[in-house]
Amino acid sequence: MPLTAGSDDRMIVVSDISEAASQFTVGVFVTTMLLARRWFEREFKPWNDRRPFPNEGLSYKDYSSTGPDLDGLRALMAIANRCPGLLLSVVSPKGSQRVASAKGDVKTHPELSDFRNWSDPLFERLMRSSCAISIAMDQFYCHPERWNLLHDTDQLFEPPRRETAMLWLNSFVCVVREGEITPMLLSTKEEVADSLFAKALLGLPDVAAGGTGSGLNAWNTKYGLKMEQSVGADGDLKEKDETIVLWFADGSRSLVKLIVSYGDEPDSGCVHLIGRALRGDDPGS
Predict the structure, then answer these.
(1) What is the per-residue burial (b if ≥16 Cβ within 10 Å, else e) of 157-192?
(2) Taking the mean position of all CA atoms in its chain, how far away is CA 1?
(3) Which of 89, 132, 212, 282 is least enclosed by beta carbons within 10 angstroms?
(4) Which residues have C-beta within 8 Å of that of residue 231, sequence separation ≥ 6?
(5) Does 11-208 carry CATH code 3.30.420.10?
(6) Residues with Cβ < 8 Å from 52, sequence gap 6 or more?
(7) Nearest-angstrom CA–CA distance, 208 and 27
């Protein structure tokens, strides 16, 4: 598989999209290099081996909202902070106006004819994901010889859409990067199920997406969030989500964490920058 061997100059983009039980769609994209193997060997693996149940507790659903479980979550956040890279979370309120339509765009852009049988929601997900992945790669600037996309389970990359989606994504990134790149190698969660390294990387966007979506859902229900608002964590969130959001707010670590949001209006969406909105103890210190 793509992640089982290779040189340290290989870029890795890990992505997860969360929509369940939230008023928001949250896509989280982690960009790092294969140098992250050093993080895995020196930081993650020793911590994982010391745990009562190794290889477990690497997703948002694995942790309860309160209680002893949160000590494990805080420990995971501390380990994640040492992974070199960028964690970009893209938030969109559900029900926002579509930015792409397979049926409409194919009529006006014949070069999109490969998508004529795609549903509008799936086509839009590909367009937004392509944009976010390109931004994440561009901000984590480097010149890798090869790069990988490690993606959680998603209809985008199921046959027969996989080849079409990958061709589009490669082309889109080339446009953003203003130059040719070596075509990416795709690995899905199922394809790397036996790789603890891949499982560790996939855990980062999974936890971030779950906590961000649940936290923003609670805030939006209570406050009706606008982009210019600042809100506090005190008493508004489940302890689990507060732990994740406060971790997100800390930008002083090797893993840089950013949140962007968009909606139909300039002031719609979520809190403008969680890192400035929250103050509290760093769960990853």
Answers:
(1) beeebeeebbebbbebbeeeeeeebeebbbbbbebb
(2) 21
(3) 282
(4) 219, 223, 225, 271, 277, 278
(5) yes
(6) none
(7) 9
pLDDT of residue 42: 92
Task: Express each pLDDT in 146-170 by its tens digit.
Answer: 778 888 767 888 888 888 988 888 8
Class of residue 230 by CB neighbours under 10 A (exposed 0-12, middle 13-18, buried 19+): exposed
Coil vs helix vs strand at 209: helix
Q: In terms of DSSP bridges, do strands 85-93 and 24-33 run parallel, antiparallel, or are they unpaired?
A: antiparallel
Q: Which residue in 108, 100, 87, 93 sits closest to 130, CA to CA? A: 100
Scanning the structure block, which residue is given the tokens 């081996």?
49
pTM: 0.81
What are the backbone angles phi and psi of residue 89, rounded to the nearest 5°? -110, 125
pLDDT, tens only, 183-207: 788 888 888 888 899 889 998 999 8
Report domain extents, the chain: 11-208
**DSSP code of residue 41:** I
Instruction: Count other Cβ atoms within 10 Å, centred on residue 52.
Output: 7
Please check the confidence at residue 275 and state whether its pLDDT lies above 80.
no
Coil, strand or helix: which one is 108? helix
